Amino acid sequence: MTKQLSHLDESGNASMVDVSNKQASVRTAVASGKVFFPENVFEQLAADDFLGKKGSIIQTAVIAGIQAVKKTAELIPLCHQLNLSKIQLDIAPLSNSLQITCTVKCNEQTGVEMEALTGVSVAALTIYDMCKALSQDIRISEIQLEQKTGGKNDFNR
Fold this sequence. Notes:
Helix content is 29%, strand content 33%. It is α+β, with helices and mostly antiparallel strands. The protein has one domain (25-150): Alpha-Beta Plaits.
């Protein structure tokens, strides 16, 4: 069986996948990513408990990531609107970086991988926005799907 791109029709045009014949099931996805800082910037942020003039860097990024998850269908043109049942976004300091993990859950006919990836991406961009005054040498990296369950094919990195 050959794999094919699911968002293209027979003519090669963009097309939303028809999920009307799929059974609803509990679906989860976990995505992660990192924001890397120059060592001196990370030390300064950590010494200030990741609080900036704009407020809590981590809590602002958590809220932004949650909002982004809920707006994924508005941001990614061929994503379905989903009734989400759970969004968990965690941000933890590591060595000169912040590790972002987003878990999304629903009971729907299609999965939530894009929602989890969007949550991580927007949280990372929010961290960058709140810290860019300290350095433009901040890198967003390693955004990836870690796990998905509940669809045709489960995935675990």
